[in-house]
Amino acid sequence: MDYFKTRATIRNYKPDVISDAEIDEMLAEAAHAPTCGGMQLYNVIVTRSDEGKSALAPAHFNQPCLTGASAVLTFCADFNRVSRWARERGADPGFDNMQSFISAMLDATIVAQQFVTIAEMRGYGTCYLGTTTWNAPMIVNALNLPELVIPVITVTLGVPAEHPAGLQPRLPLDAIRSRERYTPVNIDAAYAELEARPDSRRFMEENGKTSLAAVFTDVRYPRASNVQFSELFLSILAEQGFLKKNK
Of 55, 132, 169, 239, which one has the fewest beta carbons inside 10 Å? Predict the structure, then answer.
């Protein structure tokens, strides 16, 4: 059970190949994750070829962990399949809306985490790419995604070429847990350990900021970028049919 306290993201992989059969086996195990109404509202696109990785790479800012991975898995929120099933059985699907997208997004997120846990417990390395929703329109085109299918999470998979030393920094439990109702935390106590880390101090110095918070708000996740990628994602939600108005 120490796995959960010591796991780490792996970004560098050996050239070893993880077989399609083993990836399918892990996905089949992951598919037992909880799902909305038992509908399994996701599709997982496994990219192995250099050509396929090259098509996806620009959407993920050409991160080396993508091109060097044994496989790249794009977890998509998928209401296309269920909607087709309904129509072909004489039923009228009503899933072209935000609530349905949220249900499918949660399904895809849960099964992705289940897959990551299974893969890491087998000794493999994984890395989540947060760029998936930032550049979703590019991924839709690269993967030829149909109506009511949206990419929400990308995971790279490979045999680790590194094992990061030490535990990943996390906030104390009191900063993330409330009892009975939401309780505002003491900010100084919540962030004291994180702000005191040498790497945090280095980030501040490298970026000319007087606080670690400013590194996050001004450099890593600035307002202009948040607005830009929000607009891009809303546009692809509309193009893929999830924002249709009531008829």
Answer: 169
Residues whose CB is less than 8 angstroms from the CB of residue 108 and which lie 6 or more positions away in sequence, other chains included: 41, 42, 75, 76, 77, 78, 152, 153
Considering the entire predicted model, what is its pTM?
Answer: 0.94
Query: Which CATH architecture does the domain made up of 3-165 adopt?
Result: 3-Layer(aba) Sandwich (3.40)
Domains of the chain by residue range: 3-165
Question: Would you give per-residue pLDDT tens digits along the chain (247 residues)?
Answer: 688 888 899 999 999 999 999 999 999 999 999 999 999 999 999 999 999 999 999 999 999 999 999 999 999 999 999 999 999 999 999 999 999 999 999 999 999 999 999 999 999 999 999 999 999 999 999 999 999 999 999 999 999 998 887 678 899 999 999 999 999 999 999 999 999 999 999 999 999 999 999 999 999 999 999 999 999 999 999 999 999 865 5
Q: How far, CA to CA in Å, does 200 sit from each of 6, 164, 209?
A: 20, 17, 11
Cα 76 to Cα 45: distance, rounded to the nearest angstrom:
8
